[in-house]
Amino acid sequence: MHAVIETTDSGFSEYWNKLYANDPVQNPLYMQGGRGHFGGHEKQSHFTDRSFLVMAADEPVFGCSLTMHVDDKGRNCMGYFGLEASTHVNRSSIVEPSNNFRPEAIRLLQQHIYQLIDEIQPHSLEYLDPVSCGIMSPVTQVLLQKGGVPVVEKAQVIDLSLSQRALYRNVAKSCRGLVEWGRRNLEIEVVTEPQFEKREETQGTQWQSSAAANSTNPARLAYEKLINEGNGFLVQGRYKGKLVSSSLFVHTDRTCNYVFGDVLPGSPDRPVLHALIWEAMVHSKKRNCSQFNLGRSPVSADSETPGLNSKLIAECFGGEAHARLKVTLGGR
């Protein structure tokens, strides 16, 4: 017997956590179904959480992180607290040997998405398909049928179960030189929960990324909460005593995700992010994370000073490329 349950239903949080524990991607920003890192703050009160689960008896099969809000032009928009909506899967629910999910669970997932779109009539919907277990999400099929525009993105995933020596051997030779330069010339600091909280109280954290600079940005507030709860950290580099680079990482017990990295004015005429990312990999391994995700867009187009720092190439750290799909419906 399959059914859909929503955030207001009894047992939702328990079932969500069960699904998340078996999700092969485990993006930390979707860890608690919206009610933990995003949903409880007054700045997010204009978002309506429409996240839901597809259940098979007492077993969650699919989860969808989804919110609705009205933008400043009065238009309905669907996403996830300022990020893309996304789906999550319980890999233990995959049916062998088809390597897919039961047709009834797929039908219910697609039917509920259709119902929400018909009900909300969004001006725009942004959705991230993590392509979990190598399978395109049934939600992507619905959005494509409705005219959604897909963009294929690539996430570089590094296996942290390798020894530190093996991880370093997998780093491209040219990248190793940049890492070593940074380790010799930068004062590199990993900022975790205790230090982060103290800085927030005394001087504020230097959020330089356009994705997080606005103090009312839902993503920024979620990042702060993740760090304060021990599920995130900053790696910062100083050159001659001046902060010149800062990167944010969020993690679960198993995975660590690179969120953004910035090179600030006054940075030396050398790429500086490489050393910070290597430090984050080492820190994540010490935390017993088994997977390090360099993200879909490791460095934004404007995050390095033009003419001074070369673009960071995710592949130079080794690992494997995993496909992701971003689908946009409407909004034009």
TrEMBL record:
Q: What is this protein called?
A: BioF2-like acetyltransferase domain-containing protein
SUPFAM superfamilies, from UniProt?
Answer: Acyl-CoA N-acyltransferases (Nat) (SSF55729)
InterPro entries tied to this protein? Acyl_CoA_acyltransferase (IPR016181)
Give the domain of life.
Bacteria
